[in-house]
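As described in the Methods, two query proteins were run sequentially through the folding procedure within a single session, without resetting any intermediate state between them. The first query and its resulting structure tokens are shown here.
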Amino acid sequence: MTDEITSQRSPSDPAKGFIAIAGNPNSGKTTAFNRYTGARQHVGNYPGITVEKKEGLAHLPNGTAVTLVDLPGTYSLTAYSLEEVVARRVLAEDRPGAVIDVINTPVLERNLYLSVQMLEMGIPLVLSLNMMDEARERGVVINAARLEELTGLKCIPTIARRGDGLDEALAEAVKLSETTQGRVEPLVISYGPDLDAVLPEMIQLVEKANLLTEQYPARWVAMKFLEKDKEILARARHINNETCEKLMAIVSKVEAHLKSTLNTYPEAVIADYRYGWISSIIKDGVLTGASESFERIAFSDKLDQVLTNRLAGPLILLVVLYVMYFFTIQVGQYPNDWLSAGFDWLANFVGSHMDHGPLKSLITAGVISGVGGVLGFVPLIMIMFFMITFLEDSGYMARVAYIMDRLFRFFGLHGASIMPFIIGGGIAGGCAVPGVMGARTLRSPKERLATILTVPFMTCGAKIPVFLLFVGIFFEKNQATVMFLLTLAGWAAALLVAFALRKTVIRGEPTPFVMELPPYRLPTLAGMCIHTWERTWQYIKKAGTIILGISILIWAAMTFPDLPAEELAVYDQQRAQIVAANQGQSEEELASLVAQVDNEESAEKLRHSIAGRLGIAMESITKPAGFDWRTNIALLGGIAAKEVVISTLGTAYSLGSSEDEEEEAHSLADRIRKDSTWKLSNAMALLFFTLLYSPCFVTLAMIKQETGKWRWLFFSLFFNLALAYVVAVLTNQLLQTV
């Protein structure tokens, strides 16, 4: 990890420099950055790594333009994660003129820990005391003037979401940048008799060997040796390994002494003394009128006593998941049926006004039946997104991570893995692509890899239409329960696979889990509607672009080549014979007899097509799972995007029916109900196969990007396929015997 991260200068003018914005997660840092820059920002990744880089232009009231860089949110500058390494590198090597440190004021003590570390690096700081309104609501009164006096830092009260105080904080940062040129005297605090005794010797060794002293103060580098910071140690060894060995010998002696006398270790001592320094400042007139507040439990804490309780918390989470599905299906079923009927009517209307031929087939079977089958689930998806948005904006999602940490540790994962799982569809409706990207925050590379490889087992939004279709057909009276159980099955599969991986190919020690729980907030209706529409629009755009393109390709593969002329002539002859032999029959009876031949011809055309031949060739493999050639084609297309399973089945059933049947409004669900090959056994096998098999193309590409290795892409493709196949076969065979 450390060798891949290189220093990158800000693209801003080096003479003018830039201002960085730093802060803990949930401090309002990104809100402040967005307020400052608005649309004048661009987002990318730091070169060579996957950590997001945000940079933009802000303007002072006098019109002066200032380049701002939004550092990754971190709790500290110790190299536990890529975000922390990147933030530290930008501060030390790119050297911003000053840093606006956004503080979550209601939890001032915890947020000042990052401030202390930046001060020890000699970084010029302006403290933005954010969320002052929430602090007042909780009875916390901050004396900003006293904090300035004790720290020597400019401390500006702000409310980022309203923009209060932001201009003043930026003006102070620019002024500080001009006066300090990006460097101030590093903060020096005592770390107790055991560490203070060895630091001078270590500092001398660091200075003599010039170990990273161009970027960092020598005392800070020495402390990183005491903390056994892997990134700093690796870089220092490239410079002078002999000196590093001498330093580590000192560290070993200190470590042994602390272990025998205090049963602790240097990193813990350093953290204790930093918090001690912070506490001494806070108690010296900075925090007033807060004792009463701390004596009573805040509203969020009262809720957490129940919602994060060891026993009640997981049960409440299960209830929340079930209620989501129940409400989605009960409320969304009506608009879903109306929309599906609308697409059926549209196919019938368009088909009745077009001449028979390839163009009519393309539009009705390829486009309307294919894409319409996916878009028909928009109401259900929208309702689910709305409820997920409520959980996220209210602060409950962070509690889910806390609740699940103990369980995840047993299976070799990290508590922070819960967020990639949730984003990837752990609470159904997510997407595996941002879920895989969300694993970037994990400290341990092995826990990160295990999370990346198991996120695709979640019930992402692309799988939901497949589940809703077949659950609605075979479990009409228990749809919410079955959808809920499928979600749990995804979790179970992810955890079991993670456990197996962590015991075999991805062995490694677990890392501690630290996460700040934001206060509960009542989301605004407008905000929830905006977030819901953004996600729904992404789903619609995918159906109108990627799914449309794939549907057209699959339609072509299901349409061409046509049957040979001699075979078509046989069907024409059969129709002629039926007409000649049934002259006395009514037109309806005659049409019914002819339609039987039409159906046979349409089905044979589909079998003769490229896709049909491929699907039939796969039947020898998929027969134990109960999949026929139509299903094989759909599942093969699903590797591109899971929604394609629905669009392909819609196209296959539309092409496999006669022209007369096409003119009648039949939904895909109706056609599957009438197909005698579908039974509960192979329907359940299909549900499990869809849940478990290969991630879509975009997710596979993201796995390659995040891991940096092709082998994990192929592992995810073939291992997941094999696992899904075994589970599907066992499911089909067992249910057939029941």
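Immediately afterward, the second query was submitted; its sequence and tokens are:
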Amino acid sequence: MIEEIRIRNLGVITEATLPLGPGLSVVTGETGAGKTMVVTALGLLLGARADAGAVRTGAPSAVAEAIVRLTPDSPALARAAEAGAEIEEFDGAAELMLARTVNADGRSRAHVGGRSAPVGVLAELGEQLVAVHGQSDQLRLKSQAAQREALDKFAGPALAKALAAYQGSYHRWRDASAELEALRTAARERLREAESLQLALEEIDGVDPQPGEDEALKAEALKLANVEQLRAAATLAHQALVAEEDYGESSDAVTLVEAARRSLEQASDEDPELGKAAERLAEVGYVLADVAHELASYAAALDTEGPGRLEEVENRRADLAKLVRKYAPSIDEVLEWSSGARQRLDELTDDSSRIERLEAEIGELAERLKEQSAAVTSLRQKAAGELAARVGEELAALAMANAQLTIGIEPAELSAHGADSISFLLKPHPGAAPRPLGKGASGGELSRVMLAIEVVLAAVDPVPTFVFDEVDSGVGGKAAVEIGRRLAMLAKYVQVIVVTHLPQVAAFAGQHIRVFKTSAPAGKKGSEGVTASDVTLLTDEERITELARMLAGQEESESARAHALELIEGARQSL
């Protein structure tokens, strides 16, 4: 819902704030006062093309702003968040600020939630927030896609269920058809890919690498290349621990530690602390003996390495390096690549059987789609007849008794939405051929047609806000009262803003906004001779005065005021 619209330097309006609320809001005023600037401002906020001519004479730019209140699950709110908008949340709802600035040179800027955004974002938000029905543009239900969606929602759960079943089959049919086409058109490429994978796997299998083998061989090669140095280090260390011969002037480490242990053990009776030290030295002796044994084994193992082992290791490393250069940075990754390649090869070599399975599945799906699309079409035809009849009843009440809405459903190629081409057509009078909405009818007539459609669709396919500009053009009397009543009926479901010149329509308003002419500020450069307008929200008493002006042009006429009050009371009682 739009809570407020602010306008500055747009057309004849210098600066105005329109406080709006739920239900029906009407905008009235004398001819030329600038009522349509409200619709123009909304158009700018919905991403309409900027027109430098709309900028007030002498002003550098025109600005339109709106505060929109949304539910937390609104798709528009999610889209605004994607655009980086700052959103205020409170009381289980959220407020979003929209703004559009048009410079005198025609350039414009858009802001969503205080952040600069492309004008296209405003247009996307507008589709979800506001439906405008103006004298020149009927934005809502203009496209066949929008008309199809409206009809489907009107048809209710039965069609939704049938369409969901159809769409499940359709998406699988489309995917299977695409896969089959890819298999057929890429047969040669897939064959070449299979041959390439086969050769690569044969090469890898011929080498038969093992996980981590490249790193293990690297370490072994380093060891073999330095075997003499390693042997000398191990032998020297072993002799230092356990000397087979006299080791210099002192004994080996094991002997010295053992001597120290015995010395302490002999004195342990006099002081238990020495006994504990002796126990620890015994542990050290065991460790030294183990290390000495390991060094002896290590040196002996070095002696068993034959002179040709290093050459074998280097040759094996060369074979592995070739695989690493061709397929992956390491042997483990080569093995991982080969695993994926085998799976891919299995897929490629299974093409012929896969094609047969897909052809059979596509045939079954085609038959199923034929039946499901026929069911969808039947439900749409039934709903179309009911929708057209109910809209016809509304048109009769809106002084268009001879007009008829026809909903055409023609066969079309399969799509995600069925096998139907849907179009809303208007037959303005008997003998005339039905034509698409927007052709063959005046702006006022078309607005009434759209009002009739929206009243019928309001319970199943609403948008938060509807705007009607001069929906009552060319009518009066009882027909005008019916237009007002239907606008009020629509306002039970959504917010409705109406620009009108008929008191019968304005009498149904929940809130009444008046646009009136004022004098341009004296002495301002460029203001001489320029008409200005202002906007005000009317009180109950002021509403009576405005309706009297609209009825008789005499605000103070007692009879006009009495008639105005009678209209308001009659509107309240008829709802």
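Residues 522-527 have pLDDT under 50 and may be disordered. We note this only descriptively and draw no conclusion about the first query from it.
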